[in-house]
Amino acid sequence: MDFIDLPQLLAARGTLRLPGSKSISNRVLLLAALASGDTELRDLLQSDDTARMIDALRKLGVKVEALADKGFRVSGVGGVFPLRQADLFLGNAGTAFRSLTAVLALAGGDYRLSGVARMHERPIADLVDALRQLGAEITYAEQGGFPPLLISAPTPCPVDLVRVRGDVSSQFLSGLLMALPLRGVATTVEVVGELISRPYVDITLASMARFGVEVLREGWQRFTVAAGSAYRSPGVVEVEGDASSASYFLALGALGGGPLRVEGVGRDSLQGDVRFADALAGMGAKITVGDSWIEAAAADNGRLRGVDLDCNHIPDAAMTLATVALFAEGPTILRNVASWRVKETDRIAAMACELQKLGASVETGDDFIRIVPPARDRGLRPAAIDTYDDHRMAMCFSLAALGTPLRINDPAAVGKTFPDYFTRFAAVTQPVPVVAIDGTSASGKGTVASRVAAALGWHYLDSGALYRLTALAARRAAVGWDDEAAVAGIAANLDVDFAGGVTRLSGEDVGDAIRSEEISGGASRVAALPAVRAALLFRQRAFRRPPGLVADGRDMGAVVFPDSMTKVFLTASVEIRAERRHKQLIEKGIAASIAALLLDLRERDERDSQRCVAPMQQSADAELLDTTNLTIATAVAQVLDWVNKVSERG
Ligand SMILES: O=C(O)C1=C[C@@H](OP(=O)(O)O)[C@@H](O)[C@H](O)C1
Ligand SMILES: C=C(OP(=O)(O)O)C(=O)O
């Protein structure tokens, strides 16, 4: 499976220009297509959801041209699509699926609308029932109440009132409203049940108004589209930044010190999700709002408080509050979010499962989630987070990196609304620094690295110890060192602990046992197995904790911590290394011969540099430190000097 490992972060700050709003982009694309005249759409979101809408419009015969600089020109068809038959694949884009269902059901023609497997589990019966009242001919191609749908020309129908349920998704009402001008006659929509996600209906009304159709709204119950309403291009439409996407960065600013400024949404935004900033302020964050920007910074005392909030008006950004809750004092309760259960995944269940992996206690109900963060002194646990093909799961959980190193599985899920999310995330966050010290066997890298760590006051990872522990554990389990799958299984579940400088395997001090020549040889053997290296990768990265890490091994700079601030490749002549190893063994009262050690070191160098995964080699960006003629103190001083030079450069 594809994954991204996020290092633990020390801070987040900076400025970020947001990608265009998904909700606005997909509405204005559709309305520009239906309008008379050409429309230039500026700053449109370019992501999977908008690509699905653009593809669909093109299949309906609409000309959509990409212009320079994130612009698009849509040639409006004046309410009549040139092609009257199409098979449209709409991925998992609710904003495309629901609105196109309504529009095509009233437009006339034969269409098939389908999506990804999850889209076929997202309910659509309320919209289909409403459209049928207007004469629409829609059949369910597979399971009743769910996509895929088959649509044919509507039966003429004189009704002027249509009822739609509003308590499962507001997109049904939005889709219906956007389609009504195609009827040509006055039509009133009456909402049955409580209307959820209301701010999205405001976006719909504002978008329709931009294209010349004013809807008469009576409370949240009745909406009337007048006879003769028709969309006209306003010429140019500027799409504002995505307020839901802003939530991740505002949260980063609040949790990571800040200030972090997002540009593209602000005081005058059309999107309800800007209210996320109020929720964050309610938790104690410092929020400043400008006309088209919002900035977040940490509370004065650096702490956030848990909240108890009805989130019906911000269903998407509310997910971000669930991961912010990991860092708050006291529980957070997010209420009235039943719609989470029918979105990209069952978001209440998915959130609960993944938050628990990090150490939170979670309680859920049909429409709420209650999160109790782990105790402050315990902090977050490193974990591999599953994302359920849900962009927001991937983005929300990236925030946990402020409390622990973590792995995010299938990070490409962000493509639905924010394809370059992780690049933008990296640009405004500052990870815990690493000094990587790689080198040959017995080059003294362990001694140098642990002393550099002590001098800096940082953590120390002896990555070789993990391979030694794996070899020892395999031996104890009577598993051969060449049995790749079995050894990898052992590596993945190794119960190790390095607390207080003592190396423990399942609670037993094995400091001496893993240094024996036999286990050293075994370590070199198991380290050559790709599945073992893969199993230990995240475990090694999980040692990257504030304020910093010094890691020694063979592939620290090249593979495990490629973004290390300083990389050192330590070596010494093989004769000197054999001499040093000999001295160490004799001091421990272990008999050894220099000739045998020489032979063994030569063999090990050969094996380590020839293996196919992560062979030992000096990376191009590593400093070479030959310790043949150096004392330990001089070698340590040299490494510290390199580290200081990088720190000074900032
Ligand atoms: O109309 C829209 O643009 C949206 C409405 C909301 O859905 P529901 O109305 O289903 O809650 C929201 O979650 C979705 O991301 C976008
Ligand atoms: C619910 C979402 O998407 P959709 O537009 O597919 O409903 C979302 O983006 O969080």
Considering the chains and any ligands shown, give keywords for the structure:
UDP-n-acetylglucosamine1-carboxyvinyl-transferase, Chain; binds shikimate-3-phosphate; 34 strands; 5-stranded parallel β-sheet; elongated; 5-stranded mixed β-sheet
- Bound heterogens, unique: shikimate-3-phosphate, phosphoenolpyruvate
| Lateral strand order in the biggest sheet | 16-17-15-2-26
Total of DSSP H or I helical runs spanning 4+ residues: 21
Strand content: 15-25%
Query: What oligomeric state is this?
Result: single chain
Shape: elongated
Uncertain ranges: none
* Alpha-beta content class: alpha/beta
> Can you tell me the CATH superfamily of the largest domain?
P-loop containing nucleotide triphosphate hydrolases
Looking at the structure, the CATH topology of the largest domain is: Rossmann fold
Total separate domains:
3
Short description:
It is an enzyme of class 2 (transferase). The protein is built from 21 helices and 34 strands. It is of the alpha/beta class and 650 residues long.
